[in-house]
Design brief:
Shape: globular
Number of strands: 28
Radius of gyration: 26 Å
Strand order of the largest sheet: 3-5-1-14-11-12-13
Structural class: alpha+beta
Largest sheet: 7 strands, mixed
Strand content: 15-25%
Distance between the termini: 61 Å
């Protein structure tokens, strides 16, 4: 069969171009804040200027006196909401201020500029209380939660890990710190809301319009059928748009109060406080091994923070449960409630910080045992999932390590630190492994065959820049056995068949499962049909409830291996990544072009985590000091000279009808550790706190033996 994007053979795997790409680069794709409803107005939120306390009073007179200001909403006059499941959505409901940046008012005006000026004119006085925003391992408020995120038990223990570690021939006992990190999608969080004849229509920058509709229905006590949420084009999210955020609630409130369409477009400066962040994590890793590097004991303990209004426990020790074989194991989480904004999902939550710590500790173990870091990982490859005991549906980590080492020319590496120099530059290489779980959720889809020979597939998937429209069309064309250009996809609207959010690297697996099932049924109907199609076409529906969410007899994960080459400038302390090469085992690759883009995007984000991205919580003000892209440094093209993403095709029948695993998040997992391990190889210094900024590197080099 032909493996082309438009042939009559198989479409899956072909590097089909993203269908909406031209619309985006030409500006015809409209995002949530770019709606042009007649009479649309703008709203600007007022953020609390204290870290903890209550509102004593709000003076809105100066704001209301500005020409063009229509309303100022506060806790005194804002619509009353039903109690939300997510406390971060209870905006303008009472006087409390749980953290700096909490919204205390909203100014609505004819123009964006006037709304901003009005917000600056609102005067708020507070009764200030003492606050605590500092995370420490020995914080007296730390407690052991019942669960970490995702329903994972917060603590898992097998065998006697403490005793086994104490008696191990080789021991590594080390600590790592990952700072708060921020999602910062290029499109800020925005929503445009309008009420028409009692019906609510919202354009929201969201990773899941179905969930937004259900949440708004609950908050505003409306039937879901009276609400339409559109998320047709979304400019990134990385988890921060995975659940409804306060901006959409404010937009609906303002539209109801003014009777006008209202846009709320959050300024980037406010995003770190109200859309979630990756919580800081403090890691203690203890690895005990025999002289040959075989692990006998593995202990990974994590302390993190949460806000006082919502428990969110970064599941950073969880990946240590499945990575390597060790008969004695402990993974545990503790959490400290602080007066900080509520943390939330950020790309590869748990896995990204957890695997940084684990893979760095594995590199330390390789040094302690004198083993090659690649061979050490292979020596500790498990036969089954060490945590559940289930067999892996497929696990090709060893193949990724071997193929990556071959492509990277790892065999030529001199393992001695500081063994390669170029003038003032120290050159080093490092490796780290990667993993991410395979997940899927129930979804619905409709497939329609039209009399003109075309096909329409409908499901409320969300394309957040991943190419979901294109890949779903490929799945449909493959199931129908028709050319790709004959299939049209409709996504991003809550009036379509409901679908789960784009998150957890589960979107394509979830939506695609339903699309495949609907198209398979439609193909069967077409085969049995005689004569011309009816004017409204022939239709088939699918609902994967009971199958996509069924318990599996297998442990299902993606795996990968990262290789990094870096230079460290001994004069400036600057670390530069010359080369990143990664090999992934992520099931069947459904679109070579979009998958490579996702892998490289994740690797770039991991590079930022290693070298440039970091946020500081100021103890005095209770605020994140790096709160815009001028101070929170994401990698740019000049930081990424050579990235290679490769993959090993897997034939895994235990996943979904397409045989696919998620590719959106595994690229970030382990990248920071590979870079950090390369920096150690270059310098001989082990840096245990991210990011590896020049000041930290110079300090480390100053104390390093020569």
């Amino acid at each position: 069969m032909a493996d082309t994007a438009t042939g009559t053979g198989r479409s899956l795997g072909a590097p089909a171009e993203r269908r909406e790409g031209r619309d985006k680069v030409t500006g015809s794709a409209r995002y949530a804040a770019e709606q042009t409803d007649p009479g649309r107005v703008h709203a600007w939120p007022v953020a609390a200027g204290i870290a903890r306390g209550t509102i004593r009073g709000i003076d809105t007179a100066a704001a209301l006196a500005l020409p063009g200001v229509l309303a100022v909403l506060t806790h005194d006059n804002a619509p009353r909401l039903a109690p939300p499941d997510d406390p971060t959505l209870a905006v303008l409901q009472d006087r409390r201020v749980p953290h700096r940046g909490w919204f205390v008012a909203l100014v609505v005006a004819e123009t964006l500029e006037t709304a901003r000026a009005g917000a600056a004119a609102v005067e708020v006085t507070y009764d200030v209380e003492d606050h605590d925003v500092t995370l420490t391992e020995d914080h007296p408020g730390a407690y052991a939660p019942e669960e970490a995120n995702g329903g994972h038990p917060a603590r898992r223990e097998q065998g006697g890990p403490e005793e086994a570690f104490a008696s191990a021939q080789v021991r590594v006992d080390t600590h790592y710190r990952v700072p708060p990190l921020h999602n910062h999608p290029m499109e800020p969080h925005a929503a445009t809301a309008r009420w028409t004849g009692g019906r609510l229509v919202v354009h929201d920058s969201s990773q899941g319009a179905t969930t937004v509709r259900a949440t708004l229905a609950s908050l505003f006590r409306l039937p879901e059928d009276d609400i339409t949420v559109v998320s047709e084009h979304v400019g990134g999210g990385f988890g921060s748009k995975g659940t409804p955020r306060p901006h959409v609630v404010l937009a609906v409130m303002a539209a109801r109060e003014t009777g006008r369409p209202v846009t709320v477009n959050l300024p980037r400066r406010l995003m770190p406080s109200v859309v979630g962040h990756r919580a800081p994590t403090l890691h203690r890793l203890r690895l005990g091994a025999a002289a040959d590097g075989t692990l006998t004991s593995s202990l990974h303990e994590v302390t993190t923070h949460t806000s006082r209004i919502k428990e969110f426990v970064e599941q950073a020790a969880v990946p240590s449960r499945i990575m390597y074989a060790a008969p004695h194991r402990l993974t545990a989480h503790r959490v400290v409630p602080l007066d900080v904004p509520s943390p939330s999902w950020m790309r590869a939550p748990g896995e990204a910080p957890g695997m940084y710590a684990l893979e760095s500790a594995m590199d330390e173990l390789a040094v302690a045992t004198g083993l090659d870091p690649v061979e050490l990982r292979i020596a500790n490859e498990p036969d089954a999932d060490p945590d559940s005991g289930k067999p892996f549906s497929s696990r090709h980590l060893v193949a990724c390590l071997r193929e990556g080492a071959r492509r990277f020319d790892w065999a030529q590496r001199d393992p001695r630190p500081r063994s390669r120099t170029e003038g003032p530059l120290l050159v080093g290489t490092g490796v780290a492994a990667a993993t991410y779980p395979v997940m899927a959720s129930p979804s619905r889809a409709t497939a329609l065959a039209l009399p003109d020979g075309g096909f329409v597939v409908r499901t409320n998937a969300t394309d957040i820049g991943t190419g979901a429209r294109t890949v779903l069309a490929q799945i449909a064309a493959d199931a129908l056995g028709v050319p790709l250009e004959r299939v049209r996809t409709e996504v991003g609207n809550s009036d379509l068949p409901p679908a789960p959010l784009a998150g957890g690297s589960s979107g394509t697996a979830s939506w695609g499962w339903a699309v495949h099932e609907a198209c398979t049924r439609l193909a069967a109907r077409l085969a049995a049909h005689t004569g011309p199609l009816p004017d409204d076409g022939l239709r088939a529906d699918a609902d994967t409830a009971g199958s996509a969410d069924a318990e599996s007899d297998y442990a299902r994960h993606s795996f990968g291996a990262h290789f990094a080459e870096v230079t460290v400038d001994t004069v400036t302390g600057e670390v530069r990544a010359r080369r990143l090469l990664s090999v992934f085992a992520a099931g069947r690759i459904l679109n070579a072009r979009t998958a490579r883009s996702q892998f490289i995007g994740g690797m770039t984000m991991g590079l930022g985590m290693a070298l440039t991205e970091g946020s500081t919580m100021d103890a005095a003000s209770g605020d994140f000091t790096e709160s815009d892209l001028a101070s929170y440094h994401v990698p740019v093209h000049a930081d990424v000279p050579d990235l290679e993403a490769h993959w090993i095709e897997e034939d895994d029948p235990h996943l979904n009808p397409m045989g696919s695993k998620g590719v959106g998040e595994i690229g970030i997992v382990g990248t920071a550790a590979a870079v950090g391990n390369a920096v150690h190889h270059a310098t001989g210094v082990r840096f245990r706190e991210l990011p590896l900024t020049p000041d930290r590197v110079l300090t480390g080099l100053a104390g390093a033996p020569r």
